[in-house]
Write a structure and sequence with these properties.
The complex is a heterodimer.
Chain A: E1 16-21, E2 24-29, H1 34-40, E3 47-48, E4 55-56, E5 69-72, E6 75-79, E7 90-92, E8 111-120, H2 124-135, E9 140-143, H3 172-184, E10 189-192, E11 195-202, E12 207-214, E13 219-231, E14 235-237, E15 250-252, H4 253-262, E16 270-274, H5 278-289, E17 293-299, H6 308-315, E18 321-323, E19 325-331, E20 338-343, E21 356-359, E22 362-365, E23 369-371, H7 374-377, E24 383-386, E25 391-394, E26 407-409, H8 419-436, H9 443-457, H10 464-478
Parallel strand pairs in A: 1-7, 8-9, 8-13, 9-10, 13-26, 15-22, 16-17, 16-22, 17-18
Antiparallel strand pairs in A: 1-2, 3-4, 5-6, 5-7, 11-12, 12-13, 14-23, 19-20, 20-21, 24-25
Chain B: H1 3-6, H2 19-24, E1 26-29, H3 39-43, E2 49-50, E3 59-60, H4 70-74, E4 80-85, E5 89-96, E6 107-112, E7 117-128, E8 133-140, E9 147-152
Antiparallel strand pairs in B: 1-4, 2-3, 4-5, 5-8, 6-7, 6-9, 7-8
Classes of the chains: A alpha/beta, B mainly beta.
């Protein structure tokens, strides 16, 4: 299941680590998460559903679903996809909600941190916000629940679109590397990785975040007091409703990308891709690069939603794309062994007798994303439901500030878009937060430039939906 | 448009160079949508690719283009090719991001925009770039506007 050679990526795999999974020894590499190391051995069932005890497998790979919850060193409900492996750790699949920890509870003292700007999420938006704010002299704390910086940039092996200023022509993975480099050379930025923000409290003039850092042994609790917060928590993948959609072997397209491009593991050998937007097309191409066969790409709408250039890359590799077609059901009992596709009318109604059964071991869902706004909602910032934006988003102004003063948003959490616009929104939020702290020099000019570039990226027919979503958000703000 | 359903362009969707330009060897763009992207404009050493706005479709000045392939190297959409149509054989240069890479002199399958095998060709040049390579393949003269990929034999 491990990718042995790849045209773009190299996987170090220098240090082996062995741990116990359901009593058996499993050996992975230092870079593995628990879930990736288990998946690499060919195990597909990670948990069971609470009511019907149905098997569940790897789905999102970034800690946003519950498919991979396991008992780790006695602690139940650990998201194994974002937990690094350690020598000798004990991992067990759990029955339903798991059993109470057997280890005695060790009270920990809260570590207090005082900071100008806290940023939740260190993906393209959060990193750009942090860099921009730190450059102006603010002291920044970046918090992210993953073991690595970079959010979803670390799996983007394709070259980015845009202009020179957005590093167009550079692969996302290299943009991520450049951002790490900058962050590591900035004394004004502190990092808390493997750390989940679990609560928000409003104080008189400041904001407080409570965060939990996962260590090799136990946890550390943080109380973060800050003047401004930027929420850049990204998004989670959408599920599609069809019989068997919870079977192991049904993955989110982002989950597949994480598994392949971060951990170097193939999801399976034959993939049905559902969705021909940019994500579905890009991941299909990346599957081919990893040596995985894509049997077909199906798209419910009558036309391909993603850029033609991405579709063309897949087509010239002899991969068919069928529009007006979707998945009817997944085939398999313990895991996916096939799928039934069906044709759709232009009103998305199934066409009778159009079913085709195809053989595949992986079904990849690229059917959109939903902003991860759960934590942001705790701040009381006004939210609005916009299907164009992917779900509930915070009402915000041009400076990315929400209706709660001092709380900013950026990236997919503020409207499902893409990495280049996320980086610009991050810069805008970072600069605006710094300006409100009183650092005024040159900030206005920079802000205006970022807004102009953002507008540039949203031109054209593909920018129509984000333009409209942002227009509606602005309209709510004006009310 | 048919390509919005199939993901495959027809030559009639494209703005093609003159036969004289193709004889010399020039870049051919299959970037036909108004996506916000312009690295090809910056990459061209001869300023032969023009674009006013970021979402404009790149227009190639075939009189200025030398067919050097710099734009092919940077295009994020892998949508630029260098085509040179000779008397009996033609050359197609395109980015290739798969392993194994072919070697110069290898015989390979030549594939069209549908991914269908259209015959065999000979690899004339392999230039490694950051993640993959630019491949130049020699094909039958009439296949120059059809062949867009190779398959390793």
């Amino acid at each position: 299941m491990r990718i042995q050679s790849h045209p773009i990526l190299t996987f170090p795999r220098e240090k082996k680590i062995t741990f116990l999974f359901d009593g058996k020894k499993i050996t992975g590499f230092k870079e593995d998460s628990i879930a990736s190391a288990i998946h690499a051995t060919g195990i597909s069932t990670f948990s069971h559903s609470l009511r019907y005890n149905r098997p569940r497998g790897f789905f999102c790979g970034i800690g946003k679903c519950s498919s991979c919850l396991m008992q780790v060193n006695g602690i139940p409900n650990v998201r194994t996809c974002i937990t690094p492996i350690h020598e000798g750790m004990t991992v067990q699949t759990q029955k339903q909600t798991g059993s109470h920890p057997t280890a005695p509870f060790k009270p920990t003292t809260k570590k207090k941190r005082h900071i100008h700007i806290a940023i939740v999420g260190a993906g393209p938006a959060g990193l750009s916000a942090g860099m921009e704010a730190a450059k102006q002299g603010a002291h920044v704390l970046l918090v992210d629940e993953n073991p690595r910086l970079g959010g979803q940039l670390i799996k983007q092996t394709h070259r980015f679109f845009g202009s020179k200023e957005e590093q167009a022509g550079t692969r996302g993975i290299y943009i991520a590397e450049e951002l790490y480099h900058q962050i590591n050379h900035t004394k004004k930025i502190d990092l808390l990785l493997n750390t989940t923000v679990i609560g928000y409290y409003k104080q008189k003039n400041t904001h407080t975040l409570i965060a939990l850092k996962r260590l090799k042994s136990g946890e550390e609790l943080f109380e973060i007091h800050c003047d401004k917060i930027i929420f850049a928590c990204g998004a989670r993948e959408n599920m599609l409703s069809f019989p068997g959609n919870d079977l192991p072997g049904v993955y989110g397209a982002g989950g597949v990308q994480t598994l392949m491009n971060v951990y170097g593991i193939k999801p399976g050998s034959t993939v049905l891709m559902v969705g021909a937007g940019n994500v579905g097309l890009i991941v299909s191409y990346q599957l081919l690069q990893a040596g995985v066969h894509v049997c077909r790409v199906v798209e419910a709408l009558p036309t391909i939603g993603g850029y033609h250039v991405h579709a063309a890359k897949v087509r010239r590799c002899n991969i068919p794309i069928y529009t007006s077609m979707s998945i009817k059901e997944a085939v398999g009992t313990e895991k996916v062994t096939g799928a039934v596709t069906m044709r759709l009318t232009k009103d998305l109604c199934p066409v009778k007798n159009s079913e085709e059964t195809i053989s595949c071991d992986t079904i990849c869902l690229a059917v959109g994303l939903t902003p991860s706004t759960e934590l942001l909602m705790q701040t009381g910032a006004q939210m609005t439901y916009l299907s164009l934006a992917g779900g509930y988003v915070a009402v915000h102004n041009q400076d990315m500030e929400t209706t709660q003063g001092g709380i900013y948003v950026a990236g997919d959490l503020a409207n499902i878009e893409e990495a280049s616009t996320a980086m610009l929104e991050g810069k805008i939020a970072g600069l605006a937060a710094v300006r409100s702290l009183g650092y005024r020099e040159t900030v206005d000019e920079k802000l205006a430039e970022c807004c102009k570039r953002l507008e540039g990226l949203r031109q054209g027919s593909f920018g129509k939906f984000p333009r409209e979503a942002k227009r509606q958000i602005q309209k709510e703000w004006s009310k | 448009m048919e390509y919005e359903k199939t993901g495959v362009l027809e030559c009639s969707d494209l703005d093609l160079p003159s036969p004289e330009a193709l004889k010399r060897g020039v870049a051919v763009s299959e970037c036909i949508q108004d996506i916000p992207c312009n690295p090809c404009v910056d990459a061209c050493p001869f300023q032969a690719i023009k674009m006013k706005n970021l979402t404009d479709i790149p227009r190639i000045d075939y009189d200025t283009c030398t067919g050097c392939g710099k734009c092919v190297e940077v295009c994020p959409g892998l949508a630029l090719f260098v085509i040179k149509i000779g008397d009996s054989q033609s050359q197609v240069t395109f980015p290739y991001e798969f392993l194994p890479l072919p070697r110069r002199g290898d015989s390979v399958h030549v594939l069209d925009r549908w991914g269908k095998v259209r015959g065999e060709g000979k690899v004339a040049r392999v230039k490694k770039i950051n993640g993959g390579a630019l491949i130049t393949v020699e094909v039958e003269k009439d296949l120059a506007m059809e062949v867009r990929n190779i398959g390793i034999i």
